[in-house]
Amino acid sequence: MWIPEIEKLPESEWLSLFRLLIPKECFGQFGIDEETFEDQEGRLRLRVLYRDQGRILNVRITNPSDPVDPIYSIFMQEYGEDGVEVLGLNINDPTSERYEVDVDQYGRIPADLVSERRNIPEEIRAMHAGLAPGQVRRGLRWTGSALKGIEEFLRAIGKRWIWCEALAYHNAIVYERHGFGYQFHTWEDEMRWIDAEFRPPHGVLYHKLDGSTPFRRPGMEQTVRGRSWAIHDGILGRKWLRPTMIKEVGVHAGVNTFPDGVY
Q1: Which of 45, 62, 129, 208 has its CA 20 to 30 A from that of 239?
Q2: Is 44 found in the same domain as 146?
Q3: Are residues 101 and 90 in the same domain?
Q4: Higher pLDDT, 114 or 100
Q5: One domain for residues 34 and 46
Q6: 26 occurs within a structural domain
Q7: DSSP string, the chain
Q8: Do 42 and 75 belong together in one domain?
Q9: What is the pTM of this model?
């Protein structure tokens, strides 16, 4: 079952499906009715959009005070007959400060993890505020809940596999910790190499944390975010590979390429 079949369902049934995709914390934290998706002021906060001629599904919970950054948004498309690919998962704390890392310093040209354009001053501010590369706002710690909801959604529509692309190092580690593995062993080997080379005293990447840029400070090897910023800054000497990751519904892959790493 995918968008054409979902659209044919009675409204109550497809709403029940999309409800699975919304983290449970969202309803209580923002005063949204779980049945109607309306907030305490009667505003409908659920948006369901179909893109690319109906192949891509976008489910979001809007932020009335900022139409640019929804509180929650997930993009998915069908992947083969038995899977769904998560194209994007964004969770934003609407009360937190926004960092303009997604545009250049003049506020015009888009900057992101894919285009490799950067807004260095805003990235430095975001990093010092505890954000990871690509984040425009602080998150809400809903990733685990969101991924559980995605699994429930897949069970309901008869799918077995979740696919996603890790746009940055920290994304890969977070997905690992929630049960994902790598499509190819070479990508897992690459992640283990990165871990080894960030280790003192002989790691190649460890020795490159020499303070030559704000993103390469000594000690950044100790955290997931620190490593991710250094990799985003080009410490590998090449592009981040953006590995494809995969999870079977109900199965934890048991991959852990940064065993003692704190986020």
Answers
A1: 129
A2: yes
A3: no
A4: 100
A5: yes
A6: yes
A7: --HHHHHTS-HHHHHHHHHHTS-HHHHHHTT--TTT-B-TTS-B-EEEEEETTTTEEEEEE--TT-SSS-SEEEEEEEETTTEEEEEEEEE--TTSPP--TTB-TTS-SB--TTT----HHHHHHHHHTTPPTT-SS---S-HHHHHHHHHHHHHHHT--EEEEE--SHHHHHHHHHTT-EESSHHHHHHHHHHHHHTSTTT-HHHHH-SSSSTTS-TTGGGBHHHHHHHHHTTTTSS-----EEEEETT------SSTT-B-
A8: yes
A9: 0.94
Q: Which two tokens stand for residue 178?
A: 């929630």
Strand-pairing partners, residue 245, are 164, 182
Question: Hey, what are 258's tokens?
Answer: 């940064």
Q: What domain count does the chain have?
A: 2
Task: State residue 109's pLDDT score.
Answer: 66
Task: Tell the residue number behind the tokens 């920290």, with chain if given.
Answer: 170
For the cut 80, the answer to whether the pLDDT of residue 156 exceeds it is: yes
C-beta of residue 234 within 8 angstroms of C-beta of residue 225: no
Domain boundary among 114, 149, 165: 165
Mean pLDDT in residue range 90-117: 82
Nearest-angstrom CA–CA distance, 178 and 252: 7
Q: How far apart are CA 8 and CA 216, in angstroms?
A: 53
